[in-house]
Amino acid sequence: MTSRTTDFKHVSHLWDDAKAAELAGDEIALLIYRSNLLGADLRLTNYGGGNTSCKAITKHPLTGEYTEVMWVKGSGGDIGTLQKSGLAALYVDQLRNLKNVYRGLAYEDEMVALFNHCIYDLESKAPSIDTPLHGFLPFAHIDHLHPDAAIAIAAAADGEQITNELFKGTIGWVPWQKPGFELGLQLRKCLDNHPGIKGIILGSHGLFTWGDTAHECYLNTLEVVEKCSEYLESAYEKKGPAFGGQKIAGSSLDLRRKQASVIAPVLRGLCSNEKHMVGHFTDDARVLEFINSYDLERLAPMGTSCPDHFLRTKISPLVLKLDAHENLSDLKAVREKLIPEFEAYRKMYAEYYDSCKHEDSPPIRDANPVIILYPGIGLFSFAKDKQTARVAAEFYTNAINVMKGAEAISQYTALPKQEAFNIEYWLLEEAKLQRMPKPKALTGKIALITGSAGGIGKAIAKKFIAEGACVMINDNDAARLANAEQSFKAEFSKDAYATVLLDVTDAEAIRNAFDYSGLAFGGVDIVVNCAGISISKPIEEHTEKDWDLLYDILVKGQFLVTQAGVEILRKQNIGGDVINIVSKNALVSGPNNAGYGSAKAAQLHLSRLNAAELGGDHIRVNTVNPDAVISDSKIWEGAWAEGRAKAYGITVAELPAFYAKRTLLNEMILPEDIANACFVFVGGLMNKSTGNVLNVDGGVANAFLR
Questions:
Q1: Which residues touch 692 (CB under 8 Å, ≥6 apart)?
Q2: Which residues contact 582 (CB under 8 A, 6 or more apart)?
Q3: pLDDT digits (tens, 9 = 90+) for 180-229
Q4: Which of 398, 414, 405, 370 is nearest to 284 (CA)?
Q5: pLDDT at residue 640 above 90?
Q6: Which residues of 296-312 are buried (b: 16+ CB within 10 A; e: fewer)?
Q7: Residue range 674-703, pLDDT digits in tens
Q8: Tens digit of each residue's pLDDT (9 = 90 or more) over 416-430
Q9: Residue 473 is inside which H or E element, if any?
Q10: How does DSSP classify residue 128?
Q11: How far is CA 478 from the centre of its chain?
Q12: Burial of 665 (0-12, 13-18, 19+ CB in 10 A)
């Protein structure tokens, strides 16, 4: 049985009375339940946005007396995935008593350190800057969200008047004020001046709503957002085409994806002149409506209003001056058009910093755009990792929704530049950034590893993801790829990898895989040629078909994949790595191995040739030579294992022990050993090494290079 008071059209009513009844009496559990429901609807708030709280009476751990404690989402985190460990718990009376030592707006930042003196639960999350906003209001349950529909009213030129007329005095209004202690006082003042209101809209910012119970608070939030949404919808119908109508005609899906995949590596390279960035692309209908409109040129430079949006999208986007049908095949011509646009953006950002900075402002950060709009094609975002880039795109889409709504009911207003700067370079925000974990060795890097659905390739992919990289998982076997995808899904975030079918003997499939990497992540930095096949036969039994198959997959495949990868690496112009998984057999002569061994030798020398040619592009080419890696390998299924066992006069079951015993270290070689060797080349300590061979074979003297 699920209760409701309104037929919701614009938000999702997810409350389940039976589930809530199981939590009855546990206000913290109900807070978490409510928070997770709110976070599940992106029309209410985006990832990491907003915060929620509850107040309850509990025993003081020292005196045993009953006292009021507030649980509120702590610094960072996401209400959609919130758990108790993500809450801060504070004594309400102590928090409110901080008003007695507050020295005024110029000193409000010093209050944050005092929040720690109000902590009830010593294991709680660090309190966020929004803590007093919840603490100074008397309600048991409070939601602070950033719904697009409410922010559209909050960002309208006459938002206060609209709020009063729409809600007829039941929702208060507080003009723009940076989040913090002062805003908490203003919220309480608004409530005192308007007793009985059900919520407050914060100018250019967001929405506060509340209730005596978790359910009342939840319904109140939904009803307010629903009313805002209905108001905007009626305005869209009256005013005519959004954003002044479409200035340029919409492009086909095929054209958008083709142009995006071609230009993404170029954009990524230009955005990565300070550090490697990962990209995200979207051609969502809401984005296209905005970037194809007459109002794009007027609205885009204004920037966003809500600080939650702004912190992730930067002061304003870069709007490319490229036609949707631009010929992007001439890389030099495209770069000549784009470089001045990036230089102009960096100059604008530097001037913004210089004109707004304070004596104690942190140093200027990366001056490259986060959001790049390509009219007719879509939105690109670039950030330190895939999740941050994706979330930035989502937040800018929210900003588009806000601009659309505000323009429909009034006129959109953005944050003044100084106010935006005061948030972006806020010392408290800087301290928060400094507390974040240091990047992993491969953070910002993108890898395409052929044959990564199993065996050595899969181990390399997992190692690289664990070290911070984004990886294109691929295989020519759809069933094997699907199984691998489930394995990666269980272990890693959806932002860490993407999957694509890839046959290394098919040039078109290779191009498609790299194009997909451009759409998924912005390009590629590391190409690992790992796809393989083995055929072991005496020379008299070796067929021409066997020979062609070995050379097509091992030699031509390595060449074609490297060739396509180098094209992307050159577009980015930030260097990169090619690692070729070859074999001990490239160096050691053995029986029944003419086709496989000679193909491996060709792979090895091709690696040297590529290293000699690509050094000028700062593209490193190195080789890892494994031997007898049996675990999870298709190579060891069936005829190959039988052929090798026959060559050595042993049984298939005896092969693992046989291979281990013939090594100097008497060790079996595992896929993880090869993955570690690959990481040695790309982990940052060997950036000046190319043309090298690293043997990972347990020590086979015949395979020593010298």
A1: 622, 623, 681
A2: 600, 603, 604, 607, 623, 624, 625, 693
A3: 999 999 999 999 999 999 999 999 999 999 999 999 999 999 999 999 99
A4: 398
A5: no
A6: beebbeebbbbbbbbbb
A7: 999 999 999 999 999 999 999 999 989 888
A8: 999 999 999 998 888
A9: strand 470-475
A10: P
A11: 26
A12: exposed
Written as six digits, the tokens of 52 are 């929620």
Give 283-288's long-range contacts (Cβ < 8 A, gap of 24+): 283/253, 283/256, 283/257, 283/377, 283/378, 283/379, 284/378, 284/379, 284/397, 286/397, 286/400, 286/401, 286/404, 287/373, 287/378, 287/379, 287/397, 287/400, 288/250, 288/378
Which of these ranges, 120-124, 555-559, 619-623, has the smallest mean pLDDT? 120-124
Closest CA to 600 of 613, 587, 609: 587
- Give the C-alpha separation, 67 to 60, whole Å: 6
The tens digit of pLDDT for each residue in 494-530 reads 999 999 999 999 999 999 999 999 999 999 999 999 9
Check 33, 352, 396, 596 and give the catalytic one: 596
> HEC string of 339-358?
HHHHHHHHHHHHHHHHHHCC
Q: Indicate the Cα dihedral angle 436, 437, 439, 440, nearest 10°.
A: -160
Distance, CA of 325 to CA of 322 (rounded, Å): 8
Residue 557: which of 528, 589, 598 has the closest Cα?
Answer: 528
Cα–Cα–Cα angle for 419, 421, 424, rounded to 5 degrees = 115
Q: Which of 96, 88, 94, 98 is nearest to 126 (CA)?
A: 88
Residue 572 has pLDDT above 70, yes or no: yes
Longest dimension (CA), the chain: 97
pLDDT at position 591 is: 87
3-state secondary structure of 541: coil
Tens digit of each residue's pLDDT (9 = 90 or more) over 369-428: 999 999 999 999 999 999 999 999 999 999 999 999 999 999 999 999 999 999 999 988
Measured CA to CA, the distance from residue 584 to residue 627 in angstroms comes to 6
Length of the chain: 706
DSSP conformation letters of 637-659: STHHHHHHHHHHTS-GGGHHHHH
Q: Are 450 and 502 in contact (CB under 8 A)?
A: yes
Q: Tokens standing for 206?
A: 């967001």
Indicate left, alpha or beta for 522 from its phi (over 0: left) and psi (-120 to 50: alpha).
Answer: left
Whether the Cβ atoms of residue 706 and residue 668 lie closer than 8 Å to each other: no
pTM strictly above 0.85: yes
Find tokens 């491969």 and name the residue: 442
Please report, as a single letter, which amino acid is at residue 649: G
Most confident region among 299-308, 358-367, 695-704 by mean pLDDT: 358-367
| Band of residue 29 on the pLDDT scale cut at 50, 70, 90 | very high
Overall average pLDDT of the 62-73 stretch? 94
| Helix ranges (DSSP H) in 292-359 | 296-299, 307-313, 331-356
Residue 2's pLDDT is: 43
Whether 596 is catalytic is yes
H-helix segments, 584-632: 594-614
Asked whether 349 and 318 are in contact (CB, 8 A), the reply is no
Nearest to 222 by CA among 384, 8, 485, 77: 8
Identity of residue 517: S
Task: Write out the two tokens for 55.
Answer: 């107040």
Residue 264, pLDDT above cutoff 90 = yes
Nearest to 300 by CA among 395, 400, 389, 393: 400
3-state secondary structure 131-150: HHHHHCCCCCEEEEECCHHH
Spatial distance between the Cα atoms of 85 and 73, rounded to a whole number of angstroms = 9
